Amino acid sequence: MSFFGGGNQDRGIDDFIPGFSSTLNNIKSRFFGGGDEQPAPQQQHQQQADGDEDFDSLPNVDHLGPFLRFHDINLQRGTWHGSVLIVVKGRPNRLPVLRYDDNGRQKVARATELDTYEDNVFYRFDLEVALGDPNSGDKAVVYRINCHRAYTFYVPPAGTNSRVFAMSCNGFSSDVENPEEAGGFRPLWDDMMRRHRQRPYHVMLGGGDQLYMDPIFTTNEEIIAWLKMDDRETRVTAPFAESTRTSVTKFCFTTYANHFSNESLHEPFATIPYVFQWDDHDIFDGWGSYPPYLQDCQVFQGIYSVARRFYLLFQQHTTDRNRNRDEPHVWGANGSFSYLKHLGPQIAVLGVDTRSERTLKRIMSPENWDQTFDVINQRLAPSVKHLVVMLAVPIVWPRLELADQAMETIADFSKFAEEKLKVFSNVFGNLPNSGIGEAIGKTGLYKNVMGCFGEPELADDLCDHWTHDNHAEERRRLVHGFQQLAEERRVRVTFLSGDVHCCGAGWFRSKEIQDSRRDPRVMWQIVSSAIINVPPPGMVISMLHRNAHEYDLGDGVTIDEMIEAFKSGDVNGESLDDNTKVLPRRNYSTLEVVRDDTEYGAFALNAFIVAESVERVTDAKPYPIRIEPLL
């Protein structure tokens, strides 16, 4: 499949959304007949834009995309805001133009040039759409770039809330030797799109690891040569040479081009507006949890800077130079990228960048945490009843201590790790491994890099987790900050996370049991991982369940615990016995605000963890989680 202008881009919309032809044809008949034009956004690069009077004659351009991103809902104005990104192969003679329909009014979005790589040009189009009539249901918005095929997305009616689809770990790690045997890309993306056609999602949340950059260490000759330098000091002091930057840039761009053009992702990424945040594999395994001399060396920082460049482009539709246009939705010291977005009058999402500033001793700087709570207090609408906080790594999760395991279990882990690490042996050789990191979503790259620098014993896989001792105080301050916010604003806080390649739910609550609807310490944790990557083996799930008991936060009043989210049994109806807190199935999740059917008339949040069926071709099984509002 071509990365630019792939084989499916000229197919009709009905090939992807059957049954919508009459509605869409009516919209299209208004859509291409001329009309009012929206003023063009400011251009970063001055290239003459065409008028829309000859729109139908604009040539097709060989491109990657489109990729549709959700920006925000302006509750005061009743408008939806988003952007579309395309990457054009070869600079066109005329700027591409995007036209879309807004309540019968035809609008034109002009291209803003963000960046170039070789002969590839990144263009962003900014969209503004009036929310629909509350009495008319979802509003279909059709857009089209030049004369390419049309795409349709949906915005909620004014006064209502977005329906949300959420996923993480959207790819296979290097240790998966046969992705098709592991289920391939399609099953859960196809399942989600079936549901989307029946009742469209308005927003897609990506909780991290939208793709896996780890092969930079096993396939890139420049990086392999660096790893094989004679001694540690030579490697640590080696410059990030221009040839290395060129090679790494090509790797990162090609990885995004291949992954984002996958046939299972093309339609969702073009028709469900996404909100993405990154985790370590969007950079490489374990980023931020390496010792300072390695984390700060020129080669590591060089890889990070290139990965960040393409993360901002493909996932955030921006650049460091251009990000100020997104204020006040985006903030962050030291280059971090956090955001607050309203998904409707009663729900907002907070994306916290937990990678840009991460070190062995901290996850985010106090300055950034202060900025985060300042922005929430300044920007969060008073009507919001649910704040969904995207933390890539779960903040509520069973503790993992290998010392608790019997010797035969340790042997099982070691055998499991050997299989996971075979892919790295040609570069790193064979290193002793406990297997615990590989069992919880690590690829083994982190430990092998540490071994390459002569320090395998310092490779602490668990230091990436919130529950590690290094992060205990920061975790406690974070929990207290959100509990205070909940009490002052009467907003229910829910954490949404991925990373661990299995699914589950937990919560914080007051130590003294009380009515959870009136307890501001109640904050739910939804763990939904992975939509593509493979789950850990049964021995890992057993270990997680043995450690899934109550934990004291250390303040004497708050505990956290996993809940039995899977008491109804496995996806095939079989009993899970006592293992009902963590499920080793590929999965995604959904969120929807609903009116509480009690006398309070408040707004509850219905969450579903949707787990893949055994056959993979039948409907996935939804597991409900009811998140009550804070009264």
Automatic annotation (TrEMBL):
Q: Can you name a GO cellular component term?
A: membrane
Compositional bias segments (type: Low complexity): 37-49
> One Pfam annotation, family name?
PhoD_2
Q: Which CDD domains match?
A: MPP_PhoD
The PhoD-like phosphatase domain covers: 140-603
Q: Where is this region: Disordered?
A: 31-56
Which InterPro entries does this chain map to?
Metallo-depent_PP-like, PhoD-like_MPP, PhoD-like_sf, PhoD_2-like
Q: What is this protein called?
A: PhoD-like phosphatase domain-containing protein
The scientific name of the source species is Rhizophlyctis rosea
